[in-house]
């Protein structure tokens, strides 16, 4: 008696499964699409971080061609072009992003960044002016400061740099930029203070170290400041000081600084050697 019952149950199970195949197939297809999106997202993240920038550009160019309506892929292409230092192309790509109905204020700020990288300062200013004042981010105000600097609007630049500093936990880069702004204005003491603060925040930031010695040399202070530096950095900074001394007309000091630069670097500092030779030959002439 049990066998007919089992067969009946099995038959019911088979017919039930057969009746669900269409709906189940759709569910499986949707699930596979979701998995593909996750995998694609992971690949996009890799392309935007550790992949070779030009390989990333090739990847996103292909995927945007296949799925042009996806804003995340358009962003990936634009970001990859920035990473590859292809600023003009990045500008075009970011313009393509902001035409998308899902574009954000952040995308407009990224467009302004690309415009600055390609030297289109007026367009960058107009783009930033189109971002509502309620959208307050570190990058927005850093770019605003850079644009104000380019226009020599020092009051606005100082205001934007100060706001940007309050919006980041890694202020060294902003301090360095602000210091360079002060340096170009001839405010050497203020520049020196900002470069010193930048190095205190990040003692591996060589640009700030080089700018610091420029600010000191502009005040005819040719002593290297006390700060962490490698032998190669020391040689490069002495070279910078030497060239600055030449510009100030302190030729003998310049020669001594360049000699120190040559002696400091273990493998000899070729640039300092050439600078010293040129200076000595010019003096003899």
Lay out the secondary structure.
Blueprint: H1 2-49, H2 53-66, H3 71-83, H4 87-98, H5 105-117, H6 121-129, H7 138-150, H8 154-165, H9 172-185, H10 188-201, H11 206-218, H12 231-247, H13 251-264, H14 270-284
The total beta strand count reads 0
What summary fits the major beta sheet? none
Average pLDDT figure: 86
**What is the overall shape?**
elongated
Strand content: under 5%
| Sheet/helix structural class | mainly alpha
Cα end-to-end separation: 120 Å
- Number of helix segments? 14
Q: Which percent bin holds the helix content?
A: over 70%
The low-confidence runs, each spanning 5 or more residues with pLDDT under 50, are: 1-24, 31-38
Could you give the order of the helices and strands?
A: HHHHHHHHHHHHHH
Radius of gyration over all CA atoms, rounded: 30 Å
Signal peptide: 1-23
Protein name: Tetratricopeptide repeat protein
InterPro entries: TPR-like_helical_dom_sf (IPR011990), TPR_rpt (IPR019734)
Keywords: Signal, TPR repeat
